[in-house]
Every structure is written in structure tokens, then in C-alpha cells.
Structure prediction request, 275 residues.
Amino acid sequence: MKNTIFLVILVILLAACTPKPKQTLVEISTPYGNIVVKLYDSTAKHKANFIKLAEKGYFNGTLFHRVIKNFMIQGGDPSSKNAIPGQLLGDGDTTYTIPFEYVASYLHKRGAFAAAREGDDVNPLKASSASQFYIVQGKVFTNDELDAVELKVERRTKQYIMMDLLKKEGKEDELKAFTQMADKRDTANIRLMINKYRNAVDAQYMRTKPFKLTAEQRRVYTTIRGTPHLDGAYTVFGEVVSGMEIVDQIAVVETDSNDRPIQDIRLKIKIVNDK
Prediction:
């Protein structure tokens, strides 16, 4: 009995003395206050790249250049450092991208920290911008709204499949017409065009693992808030651990027609390692 008690005490002492794994924290300073983000180890390429840029001071002086209430706030465009008022931003970047790092459990819940990227039509491998990032504010969804999200993602995916199909078959006139329909969001004619190639489009769509929200995703998005339509399409590589109230303040500032804040929100980023 004494030996058993001794072993239990020894296990407790060892557990207490074992150091917790260190976390890599990012401090984003803004005029509204500080946001602290924890970077995930499982998305190692994104983590290493962000640390490298932050330690070089790459982000200092850039803006939160795109802000949409109940959606997200976006920053990291190097061209925003010296941007004049009203200038369209969002195209600035480094000279390289980061490969897509998908971890199914990293959802676009409230506070998710993720990499921006170009669309599937020019970036089918979902490679991330090396510098531009966004923080999710999101909203609470009903299950009916989540059903609509699934349908919207399916339609969008089929549009990209259709464009790729027309490109591969050399049907330039139809591709140009279809692209114009997509730009105008002409859903009626988009549907007619896809129906013309329905068998080929549906066959390819079934090979892409159709977008369906899991029970856990539905639980998160009906309670915590988030942006479910981005899951599986963008790399989430961290989450806010303090300062979400700052994100909420930034998310409601006045913006222009391009979602750029009227008053510049300049930021500064540094790495703060756990002790």
C-alpha cells in the first residue's frame, strides 16, 4: 500500500514538473489595442513563413485593408504601407506562395487566423499568399442557412470545374461567355451552360469530395460564429487567444465601396514566445 501511495505521489510530482509545450504567439498592435494569436504547429510551413516575415518587420506599417462586418478583417498587403486614401488594395504580396496545408479540425470559427489567396480559377491548388492574412469574426448560422452554404459551395465548385473543362477542350468562345456570366453572377445562364455539360461536370464534382458540413462544424457555426463556406478552401494556421473585442471594433468601422476602412488602421506585428 505504501509503495502504491509513493508511486501516485511520484507521478503527480513528475506531471507538475514537466514543462508545458511552448506556444508561438503573435502580437498584432493596432490603434484600437492588441490582438494576440497562437500559431499552430501542424501548419508548419505557414507558421515558419509568418515568423520569418514578422521578425524582419515585414508587416509593420501595413493596414487592415479589407474589413467586412460579420465576416473577417484582412491585412498583410505590403503595398498598403504607402497607399494613398481610396487606393484599391489587396494585390500586394511577396514573390512566392505557401502550399495549402489543410487540417480538417481547424475550422473557420470566430477568431480563426488564416491565409488569404487567389481564387480557384487561377489557383486550383489553393496555394496561400505568403503575407496576406485574415481574422474571422463571422456570424451565427441556422441549420437552414448552413444547408444553403453547402449548396452555394457546390455551385461555385461546379463553376470552376466548368471553366477548366472548357479550357481543356479549347472552347474559347464558350469559356469567355461563361466567365462573363460568372462575373455578372448570371445564375440562370450559368445553370443552362452547366446543364449542357452536366454529365462531365457532375462526374468531376463527385471526384472532388463534395462539400458537406460535419456535425461538429454545424455545432460550431450554430453556436460560436464563423464563416463555414471557407472550410477546406483556405489554410487556417492559428487562432486569436486574446483581443477578439479589438477584432469586433475593427470589423464595424466605416469602409468605402472596396471594403477598405475610411480611416487607416495601421498595424505592427511581433512574435511573443510563451515562457
Q: What stands out?
A: The chain has two domains: 24-139+224-273, 144-207. Residues 6-18 have pLDDT under 50 and may be disordered. Residues 79 and 174 are 36 Å apart (CA to CA).
